[in-house]
Amino acid sequence: xxxxxxxxxxxxxxxxxxxxxxxxxxxxxxxxxxxxxxxxxxxxxxxxxxxxxxxxxxxxxxxxxxxxxxxxxxxxxxxxxxxxxxxxxxxxxxxxxxxxxxxxxxxxxxxxxxxxxxxxxxxxxxxxxxxxxxxxxxxxxxxxxxxxxxxxxxxxxxxxxxxxxxxxxxxxxxxxxxxxxxxxxxxxxxxxxxxx
Length: 196
Known about the structure:
Blueprint: E1 5-13, E2 19-28, H1 30-44, E3 52-53, H2 55-59, E4 70-78, H3 80-87, H4 89-106, E5 112-115, E6 120-125, H5 130-146, E7 155-163, H6 170-195
Parallel strand pairs: 3-5
Antiparallel strand pairs: 1-2, 4-6, 4-7, 5-6
Helix pairs in contact: 3-4
C-alpha cells in the first residue's frame, strides 16, 4: 500500500534576516489521500456494476477533434420494472449486472462503458471507424439474441450514432442514438407480442 507524507518547510532567519536553517514538519496524509481517492471513485463509478456513472461525462471531454469519429451507443434494459415486480429486485440487479458484463466484454480497448441511468447504458468510443461502430452494434445485437432469462420480454434496446465532426453537437448525436434505441425498443416489443 502507498504511503503519503506532506512536508512543509519554512526558513529560519537570524537577526540579520539571513537564512540559517529550515524547519520542516511532516504529516502523514495517507488516510486523507485514500479517502479522497475513494470518494472520487464513488463519485464516478456505479456501485452495482463497477462501470462509470453519468458523472464521468462531466469530468472527461470527448468534444474534441482527436476523439473523432466518436461512437455513441445507447442501450436500455427492456422491462426491468416487470422483472423487479415479478421476481424481485435481486433478479433485476442480476439483469443489470449481466448486461454490464456483456457490454464490457464487447467494448473495444478505448471504449468507455457508462451506466447512464437506472437501466440505461452508454458506450463512448473515441477515434472509432464506422466499421468498428457497426461491429460493436452487431455484437450487442448478437448477444441480445443469445441472452436468456426467465422473463421472455427481457432484452436490450440498442441505438447508435457516429459523431464525425464537431459541428454536430455531442447532445445531438446522443439524441439520435437515443431515438434509434427507442425505435429498436418498439420493434422489440412488437416481436415479443407476436411471439407470446
